[in-house]
Inverse folding.
């Protein structure tokens, strides 16, 4: 299967801003909306202070994630003496914090029903796969960013090639919580352990450029299932070749049993023609065994071919795993928050009259489309909440106001010093 990349703009349902923070800041500063260079410089300082405050907040969230994940990391041995209530509380905290971080980074959770429906309509990965959900305590998928790609699909043993277009997720995060050893049947437990899935652990995986119909293939317990076409291609030749051998054996098996009984001293007499028939029957059994082995090898070869296709599809898209994804996710959340607040403050600051939230949302979306060619659903409510928590936003009915640059800088300076009260107190003395 050959892939030809063909990016299209994400539709209006996505809130992910796929532009660097520095590019957005540069584009805002270069506009003629500022009175003079001094005002531009103050706006840049404001953005630097906002970024520093969010960096500090995100660092605390990163430490919380690492602490909550300690008991569930596959790389850390589980402590038998750990209180079960503590583990459950840590698991609830981990899920809550991870969900919050992902949403701040503009990831969207994908419902299980959508995952299953997409796999049934799969177009890119032609392999039929099975991934039982009951092996796990909880499974969650989050995706961010979407585009279309064109794929060249080979069919009918290479005789036919056609190009298809499929929806691809830019980023996918998967969280899988394994059941404890006591909750899993012995047979299933051995199967999971062969796949290095530790009971009670939480697996976190981050993927890039995954077709929406291939999410099922990302499960750690996924296995290849033969399609109906494959079963026909393997079964019909097996029947065609095996039936004649079985018919010959049916006619000669009784004579073979008689000859074996004679040589074992169980009685009876054997004529020369019976010996020839018995040897023919023995040859038929050998042929049947060889035929069965040949079919088994064909089945295993086809299964291995699909397994390799499945592995390659996942391997080259896996970016990071487990605790290693925390730094990236926190950085992504910090980056998205910063861009949203920069945009919200700027367009409120330069507005000729105080806008409503809907008007602000439309102006920012129109500017992003005009400036960067991206069409998205700007998270205006989240940006306004952030400004309000920092004391930079005032609401009068539906109209929105932000503090002037001088007042906003002074307010952010107080907020920054409030993050380190002991240092501020020591400096004052």
């Amino acid at each position: 299967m050959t892939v030809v990349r063909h990016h299209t703009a994400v539709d209006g349902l996505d809130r992910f801003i796929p532009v660097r923070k520095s590019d957005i800041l540069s584009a805002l500063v270069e506009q003629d909306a500022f009175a003079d260079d001094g005002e531009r410089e103050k706006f840049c300082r404001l953005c630097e202070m906002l970024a520093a405050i969010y960096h500090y907040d995100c660092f605390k969230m990163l430490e919380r994630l690492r602490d909550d994940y300690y008991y569930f990391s596959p790389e850390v041995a589980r402590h038998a003496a750990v209180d079960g209530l503590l583990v459950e509380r840590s698991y609830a905290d981990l899920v809550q914090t991870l969900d919050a971080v992902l949403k701040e980074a503009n990831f969207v959770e994908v419902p299980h029903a959508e995952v299953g429906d997409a796999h049934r309509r799969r177009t890119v990965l032609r392999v039929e796969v099975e991934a039982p959900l009951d092996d796990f305590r909880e499974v969650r998928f989050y995706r961010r960013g979407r585009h279309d790609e064109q794929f060249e699909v080979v069919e009918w043993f290479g005789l036919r090639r056609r190009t298809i277009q499929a929806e691809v997720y830019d980023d996918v995060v998967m969280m899988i919580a394994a059941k404890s050893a006591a909750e899993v049947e012995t047979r299933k437990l051995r199967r999971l352990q062969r796949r290095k899935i530790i009971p009670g652990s939480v697996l976190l995986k981050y993927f890039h450029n995954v077709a929406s119909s291939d999410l099922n293939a990302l499960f750690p317990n996924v296995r290849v299932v033969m399609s109906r076409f494959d079963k026909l291609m393997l079964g019909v030749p097996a029947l065609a070749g095996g039936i004649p051998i079985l018919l010959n054996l049916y006619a000669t098996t009784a004579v073979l049993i008689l000859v074996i009984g004679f040589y074992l001293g169980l009685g009876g007499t054997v004529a020369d023609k019976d010996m020839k028939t018995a040897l023919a029957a023995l040859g038929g059994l050998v042929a049947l065994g060889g035929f069965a082995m040949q079919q088994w090898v064909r089945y295993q070869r086809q299964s291995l071919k699909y397994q390799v296709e499945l592995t390659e599809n996942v391997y080259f898209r896996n970016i990071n795993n487990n605790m290693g994804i925390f730094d990236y996710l926190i950085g992504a959340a910090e980056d998205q928050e910063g861009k949203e607040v920069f945009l919200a403050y700027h367009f409120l600051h330069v507005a000729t009259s105080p806008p409503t939230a809907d008007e602000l949302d439309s102006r920012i979306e129109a500017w992003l489309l005009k400036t960067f060619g991206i069409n998205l659903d700007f998270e205006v409510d989240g940006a306004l909440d952030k400004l309000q928590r920092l004391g930079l936003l005032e609401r009068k009915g539906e109209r929105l106001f932000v503090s002037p640059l001088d007042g906003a800088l002074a307010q952010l300076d107080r907020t920054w010093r409030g993050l380190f009260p002991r240092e501020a107190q020591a400096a004052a003395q």
In short: Residues 228-307 form one domain. The radius of gyration is 32 Å. Residues 1-12 have pLDDT under 50 and may be disordered. The longest strand covers residues 136-155.
